[in-house]
Design the sequence.
């Protein structure tokens, strides 16, 4: 019991200590090597700015996070529906596969300027759409794979029960695909935040983390720019952890088949 | 389910062959000219080396595959009709439980698919959980169970609809020897209680001898029946662990071994082993 407790403490403490060591080294390097702020500000300077401008950082983060969240939801829902259709209609899957594959290799954010023109540069719509497109790909591919992966023994069982297609879908295929779906959502969550943020650098309203970083840099306030970067990291982590929790909940009983 | 006609066979396999097509060439002959009758309530084991088609034969009875030639009749119907009528229960080497369902929900699965009401389902599942000795584990998930316990759940599931025919494809193959013997003893008891016919696929000679009324010895390439041996070791309910040390038991084990290996050289080895 004690050994277990201490091992857990080590598992939690070790990364924290390591992180602190990296920060200390960073601070020492900046001070000791006299690195100029526009090259690399010290963690203490960044922390100060983060503390001082917390409401601004939070405000910008919320705007970017809302775009990412809406995009993630829209992308996930369309991807799940698309995967369901592709899984049930083989023809449609074969016809659409090249387009979906092509969409998965283009950097979605590069569509940003075109989308701003389409939906108006004063609207957040284009950013939401970019996050949605970026989310769509991993959710679509993972869900499709999940729907296709039915253990042979479960297929045999369903046949031996003379189960209808709908029954087999509800009893085996859908629950079996759920973990794949949530893995897709977890991957998509990071992409949604990243693409919503990067899309801000291609135009649109001057709100959000992406524009805040650019603005801070152009006014030579480097520690502030890094404080916004810190805000972006935290936003990304919140998305990642939330979807990781969902995934864990969905795969709770999956250790053995 | 239709009433059992007097003397009607549980399974009637008449001149069955199975060829699996391959991309190039003539295909792989898994079974050739196999004929076998399993009486109602009879326990028949199929034994033979890998590739002798014993699992394929069981899958044909279950209508999970269709024969290339010949006919499989189950309770006087086509195998397909028997499957649609749910005349058999089936268990495989892997338990094949649905990991997101509890033990109880797994056992209820076939009942649920066939429209049995919630209360009746629950009652039947409780009964079966007791029957396979998993009293305290009804609300556990499969991952919380040992391999032997998972296999018991699978067997309970196969019994859910009180089938008159049980098809079992090496259900104890993945278990350790001790668990395996205990499960065998339980199976003889279950079989005596339910009166179901059993077609049991195995590659363990003692297992086949211990459980069966008759043992069907098969040989590979192409899969066919070499010999069918009567065990004559008494009714299922009378078979206890004491039988495993009985002289008759060892005799039958030797008989099956000799049939499996062909008589000549191996029969002397069989005697040495005694």
Sequence:
């Amino acid at each position: 019991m004690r050994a277990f407790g201490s091992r857990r403490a080590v598992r939690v403490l070790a990364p924290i200590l390591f992180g602190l060591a990296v920060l200390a080294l960073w601070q020492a390097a900046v001070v000791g090597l006299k690195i100029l702020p526009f090259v690399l500000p010290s963690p203490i300077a960044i922390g100060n700015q983060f503390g001082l401008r917390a409401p601004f950082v939070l405000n910008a983060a919320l705007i970017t996070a809302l775009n990412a969240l809406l995009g993630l939801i829209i992308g996930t829902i369309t991807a799940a529906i698309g995967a369901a259709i592709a899984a049930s209609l083989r023809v449609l899957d074969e016809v659409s596969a090249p387009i979906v594959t092509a969409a998965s290799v283009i950097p979605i954010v590069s569509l940003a300027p075109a989308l701003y023109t389409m939906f108006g540069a004063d609207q957040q719509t284009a950013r939401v759409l970019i996050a949605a497109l970026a989310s769509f790909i991993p959710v679509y591919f993972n869900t499709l794979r999940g729907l296709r992966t039915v253990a042979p023994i479960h297929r045999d069982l369903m046949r031996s029960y003379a189960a209808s297609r709908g029954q087999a879908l509800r009893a085996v295929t859908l629950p079996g695909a759920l973990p794949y779906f949530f893995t897709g959502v977890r991957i998509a969550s990071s992409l949604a935040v990243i693409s919503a943020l990067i899309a801000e650098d291609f135009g649109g309203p001057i709100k959000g983390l992406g524009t805040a970083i650019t603005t801070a840099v152009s006014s030579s306030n480097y520690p502030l720019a890094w404080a916004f970067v810190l805000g972006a990291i935290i936003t990304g982590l919140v998305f990642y952890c939330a979807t990781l929790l969902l995934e864990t909940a969905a795969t709770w009983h999956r250790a053995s088949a | 389910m239709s009433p059992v006609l007097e003397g009607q066979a549980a399974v009637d396999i008449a001149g069955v062959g199975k060829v699996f097509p391959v991309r190039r060439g003539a295909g792989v002959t898994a079974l050739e000219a196999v004929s076998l009758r399993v009486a109602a309530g009879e326990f028949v084991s199929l034994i033979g080396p890998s590739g002798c088609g014993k699992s394929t034969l069981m899958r044909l009875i279950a209508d999970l595959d269709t024969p290339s030639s010949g006919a499989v009749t189950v309770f006087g119907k086509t195998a397909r009709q028997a499957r649609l009528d749910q005349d058999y229960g089936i268990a495989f080497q892997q338990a094949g439980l649905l990991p997101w369902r509890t033990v109880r929900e797994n056992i209820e699965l076939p009942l649920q698919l066939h429209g049995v009401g919630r209360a009746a389902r629950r009652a039947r599942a409780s009964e079966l959980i007791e029957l396979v000795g998993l009293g305290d584990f009804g609300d556990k998930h499969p991952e919380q169970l040992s391999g032997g316990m998972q296999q018991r759940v699978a067997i309970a599931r196969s019994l859910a609809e009180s089938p008159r025919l049980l098809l079992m494809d090496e259900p104890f193959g993945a278990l350790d020897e001790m668990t395996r013997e205990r499960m065998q003893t339980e199976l003889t008891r279950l079989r005596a209680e339910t009166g179901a016919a059993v077609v049991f696929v195995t590659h363990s000679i003692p297992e086949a001898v211990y459980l069966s009324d008759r043992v069907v010895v098969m040989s590979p390439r192409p899969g066919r029946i070499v010999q069918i041996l009567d065990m004559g070791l008494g009714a299922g309910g009378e078979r206890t662990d004491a039988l495993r040390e009985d002289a008759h038991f060892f005799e039958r084990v030797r008989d099956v071994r000799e049939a499996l290996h062909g008589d000549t050289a191996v029969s002397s080895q069989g005697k040495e082993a005694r």
In short: The domain at 50-250 of chain A is CATH 1.10.3720.10 (MetI-like fold).
